[in-house]
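Q: Here's a chain of 216 amino acids. Please give me its 3D structure as tokens.
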Amino acid sequence: MGGEDGLVDKIRRYPDRARTERAQLDAVLDAAPMGTLATVVDSLPWAVPMLYARDGDRILLHGSTGAGALRQVAAGAPAVLCVALLDGIVVADTLFDSSANYRSAVVRGNLVTLDADESAGALDALSDVLIPGRSSEVRGHRRKELAATLALALPINPGQWTVKVRDAPPGEPAEASSAWAGVVPVRSVAGAPVPAPWVATGTPLPASVSRLTRTA
């Protein structure tokens, strides 16, 4: 675990890549819309990729109320959310020294189940992080939908997170080499929107979708 009170001491491999400021954690969390939530259920490991959104000092997640393992973390089982972003392929003069530029974050803690009054607002907030402004373009949540959805929050507490970043070219070769070396940047971008088959021809793009393509 980590945070501002001892993160470097906890990250023992490549401690120079550790980041200790809370703003650096927020930057990684805000850049990646998907992470892996992991816990232990009946003495067996459990992990599932999940969409999430940071909302101030908490991370919002949601899933089906029928998901048994999700009910375990909702009941208080310790959990961890892992996030990773690949920023570049580091091509060194040898395979051994080749690597990747990346940003990663790990947040540990106990998830809190949001009550009915909080769930609708939390789900709106989660949606608006992924698709800014979408919640104002569509109808509100129906009672049946809220009843079928488990809304959770993972608090971001000091001492319960770590961040690592590699952002550098390959190191200079230990011996003379004529091989090319450098970094190949990697990034994800939004493509042209593809309407669903049942959408009428000529239906204009909503502002939220247009905004996604403009910011890509």
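Q: Can you summarize the key feature?
A: The longest strand covers residues 79-91.
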